[in-house]
Write a structure and sequence with these properties.
539 residues, TIM Barrel, 22 strands, globular
Amino acid sequence: MAFPQGYSTENHRFGLPFSEFCVTWISDLPQMKLRDILFWLASCLLWTFTVSAGPSTLIRNILLIDGSGKPPYPASVRVQDQKISAIGDLKAFKNEKVIDGHGLCLAPGFIDSHSHHFADVQRNPNALSTASQGITTIVIGQDGESLPMAEIQQKLRSNPIAVHIASYTGHTALREQAMGEKNLLRPASQTEIDAMKKLLSADLAEGSLGLSTGLEYEGAFYSTRDEVMQLAQITAAYHGRYISHIRSEDITLADALDEIIQIGRIAKIPVQISHIKLAKKGDWGQAATILQQLEQARQAGIDITADIYPYNFWHSTPRILFPKRDYKNLASAELATQELFDPSGSTLVRYAPKPEYAGKTIAQIAQLRNESPAQSLIAIIALSEEFREKNPNFSGTVEAITGKSMLDADVTTFLQWPHANICSDGNAGAHPRGYGTFTRILGRYVREAQALSLAEVIHKMTGLTAKHLGIQDRGLIAPGKIADLVLFDPKTVLDHATIAEPQALSTGIQRVWVNGEIVYQNQQSTGKRPGTLIKRTHE
């Protein structure tokens, strides 16, 4: 059965004479065969659906990188009703909005699997820090800290933002509710664990992605494996995932890796290592050995993955430099300065007790104080404690350090692991990763160093990340997927954020779409705020 003269699948949705065609056929119904009647009904339904659909946009003349890992190829992409409706050699419909990509690359919007940007995007809902580097989804609730899903939903309703949000449920946040904020420096009782399990179940039922832990930080450092395991098993029952800032990235790394592997094996849950790194100088150059261990776990049936950011320095509290939390122990401080970070390359970026120290390296502060870097490290923490006691209502960051303690070659090796996705671990603060992570990867690791292919990296920023998170409706450019997109110039894309200028905008990101709406173009936000709360879905 053929369509009538003058009708085509490309023009019917814009109200061309197909309506008249449907009416005309009504008069012929008595003479029509059943096959023809069914075809007529289906055609009329198709017409009714398509003419009711919203306006569409055709993005043409682009090099498509669809997020699957497949090599780029020329194509056009049609966007309609917040979704990808067609891909291929497409012709523009009558009155359709057309955007010429000028041969640039179109990729799925980047998904930041480990983000601390939520506070910033609430203050600045245009989300310039993320959209400017092509990020369309940020995943929060990291390192054990989180807000309840219902509270996040309410915040987004009252203050819409430009990018999507997804969240884990934080282990430390559960401990604070069940144990009290001042009672965390001990293992939890079974009664307290049971209370955490109820809170976790409720949040998972609201669509949390799973459980996050920050086991190296004081709020969770004293938790037992059993405590974490019980919570992981609850998470698995809801088909959630487990992501962890593991207990150690330095002197007890082996034990920390054993713990997350054990959780994956016993709880039968996908597990992910947050911002994988080798922070102890004695371990530098051993990235391949670590990955071999993780591959062995995968071969044993454990779904273990990792995320990573492309910098050889981190941003955190100086407290993590004391693995035993013995902040007055000079021997521990000397171990930290010798093995765990470089005092001359590590900057105290925020320091409320003595603001004049901010912006100086630990080595410079030691010189000012006429003492060793180890002694200064002890003093910095002691003064912070004194400040907290005298200022109990202080809501800002008391101290923060940008610490250099990684080998570039190890970072590259971890980036190249097929099961590692890209994350920022950033916010709009003092570390340049908050504004520059994704463009840094594209500019420095793909174009300059050629450490990874463009298709490979985009996969690690999109399709692979979505798989690791259990997000099924984005991460790929394919019909039916949400139209979160980024148009960029592979020849010019580059980060410019530094420690001195951490909020410098990247270049080369031409346009960013969220839910089919342009939120960023011409180096500025458009003011659109179509971001939503993404909830966990069962696979």
